[in-house]
Amino acid sequence: MYVNIDQAFVTLATTDNYAKGAMVLGKSLRNHNTSKKLVALIGPHVSEPSRAVLRKVYDEVRLVDVLDSGDAAHLAMMKRPDLGVTFTKLHGWTLTEYSKCVFMDADTLVLSNIDELFEREELSAAPDPGWPDCFNSGVFVFRPSNETYGKLLTTCSENGSFDGGDQGILNSFFSDWATADISKHLPFIYNLSSIAIYTYLPAFKQYGRDAKVVHFLGKVKPWDYSYDATSKTLKGQSQDASDMHPNFLLQWWELFSSSVLSLMKEEYGDQPFHSGCTESDIHVDVAQMHISHHPPPPQMSSQERKQKWEHGQADYMGLDSFENIEKKLDSFLK
Ligand code: UDP
Ligand code: GLC
Ligand code: MN
After folding, report:
1. Which of 1, 84, 124, 318 could share a disulfide with 120, CB 3.0–4.6 Å?
2. Nearest C-alpha to atom 22 of ligand 1 is from which residue?
3. Cα(311) to centroid(ligand 3), Å
């Protein structure tokens, strides 16, 4: 197959959990026959076995310094104190052996071949579902350049980031994205975030099937759930996995259990690791469910629930399930 050696998909993982996301993302790109190189940037805290798995999936695994905005005030506004390290993404611009790259967050999953993104120019990205005049920095096209890297770092130190993370910096730096050139607006199907499904369900029903990239944006990530590979269900959650968003989650887990878990087992050997995935006998599982049955969580006020939702902590499997939201919409439409 023809391989573009000077174009690459790039992701970032500073922890073993995000590394799991990167493994699934890399496999999803390979399964859809990308002709591009795959590069994973990792921080020093990623364990050796996880690095070894990444090396099996990616063409290049590069250790980078973790850049941290340390900007507690702005990050607190997003309720995501963990996102300061996303400044590390900026290292992507130092990959100057590539002429063009597409950055993808480690919490994205590719559903079809997206190599056509390389026809776009820097900086192309899809709108952020929370503030569509900004782009979301989970998927973007860029051109590595030490000069741009230097300017980005200067912007960081002089002005800081309005959200404390990379997305604030990148939007300030590529500030004409919203107005200058419509070809730099990627269609939303290249960065379909779960939040949008719940804010504009009819559009999701109309266009969702065209999704090319799903982005599990928000505090709760696919690897925070657990999965039973035998019954193909998400465990510890509602047993009804027919919701749309959980379907994407199930796709993530199916890929993890079918293609990534075996690589992790090989590399971790006797060392214990948390896979989040069980291959239990269904009967045993049902029995365990009775024993470990948790009491229902205390009722939340609708204000609390709204706040949680706005912070990406929707109860996708329960109160905020696709089915419940659909019922609510139907009642308005009647
Ligand atoms: N990331 C990382 N370690 C962290 C937090 C973030 O490696 O502790 C990377 C990872 O690639 C992740 C991206 O930065 O996908 C952006 O963070 P996240 O996806 O959590 O932000 P969200 O999309 O939920 O706003
Ligand atoms: C966003 C983006 C993510 C970025 C974060 C911090 O919500 O989805 O990619 O790292 O903000 O700026
Ligand atoms: Mn993300």
Report:
1. 124
2. 217
3. 13
- pLDDT range class, residue 316, cuts 50, 70, 90: low
| Ligand 2 geometric centre to CA of 299 (Å) | 30
275 CB near ligand 2 (under 6 Å): no
Q: Which residues of 241-270 are buried (b: 16+ CB within 10 A; e: fewer)?
A: bebbbbebbbbbbebbbebbbebbeebbee
* CB of 165 closer than 6 angstroms to any ligand 2 atom: yes
State how far the Cα of 245 lies from the Cα of 253, in Å rounded to an integer: 13
Q: Which residue segment(s) compose the domain that 63 sits in?
A: 4-194
Cα-to-centroid distance, 134 and ligand 2 (Å): 11
201 in a structural domain? no
151 & 29 share domain: yes
CA dihedral over 253, 254, 259, 265, signed as positive or negative: positive
Domain identity same for 189 and 229: no
Can you tell me which residue has the tokens 């607190």? 76
The pTM (predicted TM-score) of the whole model is: 0.84
pLDDT digits (tens, 9 = 90+) for 1-52: 566 789 999 999 999 999 999 999 999 999 999 999 999 999 999 999 999 9
For the stretch 133-143, pLDDT in tens is 999 999 999 99
Number of domains in the chain: 2
What pLDDT score was predicted for residue 330?
58
